[in-house]
Automatic annotation (TrEMBL):
SUPFAM superfamilies: Flavoproteins
HAMAP family: NrdI (MF_00128)
Annotated Gene3D superfamilies: 3.40.50.360
Gene: nrdI
Pfam families: Flavodoxin_NdrI
Protein name, as recorded: Protein NrdI
Domain of life: Bacteria
Gene Ontology MF terms in the entry: FMN binding
Family: Belongs to the NrdI family.
InterPro entries: Flavoprotein-like_sf, RNR_Ib_NrdI_bac, RNR_NrdI
Length: 143
């Protein structure tokens, strides 16, 4: 079964995107104290926080890019080991740090970054993410 685990702030941009996928989904709670445990494989979809900030040498600052609730969720080994891939959203106004939460998580967990989309995403983004998620789970079944 293709499962999406996602985080969405009170703006609900990511939530609205995930709804369009029409796939089974679980939302990471907004409160840090809630301990969501997922015991099956999933694709993570997360927004990017902060952005556009650079240090004195012009390097993109990544601190704060991954929402704290996502960090808490992934700090649980049981959750982390079931993450097959990542999708992230962002705002192109932030230049080099656009949707950077995805690459940060993908690199940390050694999983593929499937797609990055802006804000609410387009129909193209929805189609691309849905096909990529289904492909990941098809590969899992065939292994």
């Amino acid at each position: 079964m293709a499962l999406i685990v996602y985080y969405s702030s009170k703006s609900n941009n990511t939530h609205r995107f995930v709804e369009k996928l029409n796939l089974p989904k679980v939302r990471i709670p907004l409160a840090e104290g809630d301990n969501l445990k997922v015991n099956e494989d999933f694709v993570l979809i997360t927004p990017t926080y902060s952005g556009g900030q650079k240090d004195a040498d012009g390097h993109v600052l990544t601190a704060g890019a991954v929402p704290k609730d996502v960090i808490h969720f992934l700090n649980q080994v049981e959750n982390r080991k079931h993450c097959l891939a990542v999708v992230s959203s962002g705002n192109t106004n932030f230049g080099d740090s656009y949707a950077i939460a995805g690459p940060i998580i993908a690199n940390k967990l050694h999983v593929p970054l499937l797609h990055q989309f802006e804000l609410l995403g387009t129909e193209y983004d929805v189609d691309k993410v849905k096909q990529a998620v289904l492909c990941i789970f098809k590969e899992q079944v065939n292994e």
